[in-house]
Design a protein that fits this description.
By secondary structure, this protein is an alpha+beta fold. The chain has 16 helices and six strands. Strand 4, helix 16 and strand 5 form a beta-alpha-beta unit.
Length: 488
């Protein structure tokens, strides 16, 4: 029991896609949709009784759309309930599952679709009573879901409240099946709502007054309980408004295939769709945010925590990848080994905090020189860095290395209160010649490292590029040539 309480408490604080706060922008969009529905319903209402052509494929298209849309909405809500264990989501999933099952059964029993009188032994009153149960049951299920959110059921359910969502989620389709059975096989116990094609009894009967009352109560409860502060409740309120407009237009039409009858079913599709469209939009945005977060995490995992340069692991993976590409493309590739001169002495004199600032500044200066997408700088260890430059020959590598050396040397002239003193770098480089059939990756690094030591031994703050192409066999140290700006 203690464990279940802890689990419930942990999920209660979680936030999902559907319970995000309603922003001003979302209010404007939902308000615009609500205004459109009201204007469309009011414009259609005076002409609702106008007889329209009988479009035979309309009912199959309408019912199929509602079944698919309501089923998807139920699925998304069930996912949210499973993730957060909030009864409200389970209750709403049950409401949409209720409509899905009711629409599927009405599709089968509607006269003239599969048979003149409908399937499953349906009578002349079955389809219309299914419509009544549909439009009364959906808002009733929404009210039950809202009551779990308001805490009205917590007094007797207590810690079982999350399970109430599961009960309501299952109860929706089961209740729809039970009511459908009653409408089909016990319709003789129900009042006659339709005579021929006329809906006169339906419009004047008590059943429709109850449906309208439940719809109004559901809308009031939604606004009262949620204050429309979250995304889901905002669009549920719009769906209830569309369902109310659907009901009133069908009643005003008073007959099948009237303008009101067609208009009501269009509003019914809108009622089914608005929540799903909002969910798909928000889930898409959430997915984009997850992708961006994963990309940021992956980028962070590839970066050195102090300097922001790529780390040693990234270097090893990317270096191997670029080597393979170099072999395929028969293109040159150069690497530069870069070491900060006398950094330990600077660290001891200025302190580690100032030393860290210098390392960051050095990396920024190095990266500013490498402008091509394939080039990168990685922290090789301590104050040593390595630059990898695909499709770069020895002459271009020398020019870039010299630009890096000057960029770091120029940092000492800055007075921006972030770094003090002066720091220089020594750079050694080596290049893979595309004419060489065989080469060793380790030898490429060794040549660059040997060139770096040559630069440091020559007095530091200078560039040395190996004059030898990297082959499978080691190249003699004597073939290195030092430079202070040119390959001599």
């Amino acid at each position: 029991m203690a464990r279940s309480k802890a689990a419930h408490g942990s999920t209660r604080g979680m936030s999902g896609v559907l319970d995000q706060k309603s922003t001003r922008r979302r209010f404007i969009i939902a308000g615009t949709m609500a205004a459109f529905l009201l204007i469309a319903a009011c414009a259609t209402f005076p002409f609702a009784g106008t007889h329209m052509p009988v479009v035979v494929p309309f009912i199959p298209m309408f019912e199929t759309t509602v079944i698919l849309v309501e089923g998807l909405t139920c699925f998304f809500l069930a996912i949210q309930y499973r993730a957060l264990r909030q009864a409200y989501f389970g209750g709403l999933a049950g409401a949409y599952g209720f409509v899905m099952v009711m629409a599927a059964i009405q599709f089968l029993v509607f006269p003239g679709v599969f048979s003149p009188t409908g399937l499953l032994g349906a009578g002349p009153q079955s389809a219309v009573w299914l419509w009544v149960f549909w439009h009364g049951g959906f808002p009733a299920m929404v009210i039950l879901a809202l009551l779990t959110r308001a805490g009205a059921t917590s007094r007797w359910l207590g810690d079982s409240l999350p399970r109430a969502g599961l009960v309501l989620m299952a109860a929706g389709p089961l209740l729809a099946a039970a009511l459908a059975y009653f409408a089909i096989h016990r319709s003789d116990l129900l009042p006659v709502l339709i005579r021929g094609a006329s809906y006169q009894n339906l419009r004047d009967g008590e059943a429709t007054k109850i449906v309208i009352a439940i719809l109004l109560l559901a809308g009031f409860t939604c606004i009262r309980v949620t204050r429309l502060r979250d995304l889901l409740s905002l669009w549920v309120a719009v769906a209830l408004l569309a369902s109310l407009g659907d009901t009133l237009l069908v009643l005003a039409g008073s007959a099948r295939y009237s303008l009101g009858w067609y208009g009501g079913r269009v509003l019914s599709v809108i009622s089914s769709s608005v929540v799903l469209c909002a969910l798909i939009f928000e889930f898409t945005r959430a997915y984009e945010r997850v992708l961006a977060s994963n990309a940021a995490l992956a980028e962070r995992a590839m970066r050195d925590g102090l300097t922001g340069a790529f780390n040693r692991l990234y270097f090893e993976e990317q270096f191997a990848r670029e080597l393979r590409r170099t072999v395929r493309e028969r293109a040159p590739m150069s690497v530069l080994m870069i070491d900060v001169d006398h950094f330990k002495t600077y660290n001891d004199m200025r302190g580690h905090q100032m030393g860290d600032r210098w390392l960051v500044a050095v990396v920024r200066a190095l990266e500013a020189v490498l402008r091509r997408p394939g080039d990168f700088v990685a922290r090789y260890g301590g104050e040593e860095f390595i630059a990898v430059m695909p499709r770069t020959g020895a002459e271009a590598a020398l020019a870039l290395a010299e630009a890096m050396r000057r960029a770091v040397a120029a940092l000492g002239a800055r007075r921006d209160n972030t770094i003090e003193g002066s720091v220089t770098v020594s750079i050694g480089g080596a290049t893979i010649d595309p004419a060489v059939e065989d080469f060793s990756a380790a030898e490429l690094i060794r040549q660059a490292d040997a060139a770096l030591y040559q630069a440091k031994n020559a007095g530091r703050d200078r560039v040395v590029i190996s004059a030898a192409c990297v082959a499978a066999k080691p190249v003699a140290e004597g073939r290195l040539k030092a430079s202070n700006g040119s390959l001599r």
